[in-house]
Design a protein that fits this description.
By secondary structure, this protein is mainly alpha-helical. It is about 50% helix and about 10% strand.
Length: about 90
């Protein structure tokens, strides 16, 4: 079962997808995947090219989610950067 926050139109969580972490609806792309690219210097357009399923509105919503959940996403990005299998 997916749950969507009333505050975020495109961000969902599903216990059986991506470990239950926040992701873009109808994809397996985690918010932390998007933010990982952004904090490493990617532009919104570059993120959209990296993830063709994403629209600019999805990326901006990931940024909004990040602003509200910075510690959660920072931890996931850090884990991903240290995990060579991520």
């Amino acid at each position: 079962m997916e749950t969507t926050s009333a505050s975020y139109r495109y961000i969902v969580r599903s216990p059986d997808v991506r470990g239950g972490h926040a992701r873009v609806e109808s994809t397996r792309i985690g918010v932390h995947d998007v933010i990982g690219l952004i904090v490493n210097g990617a532009t919104v357009d570059e993120v959209c090219r990296s993830f063709p399923d994403l629209k600019r509105s999805h990326v901006y919503e990931c940024l909004a989610y990040y602003e509200d959940h910075r510690a959660e996403i920072d931890d996931l990005v850090a884990d991903q950067m240290h995990d060579p299998n991520a």
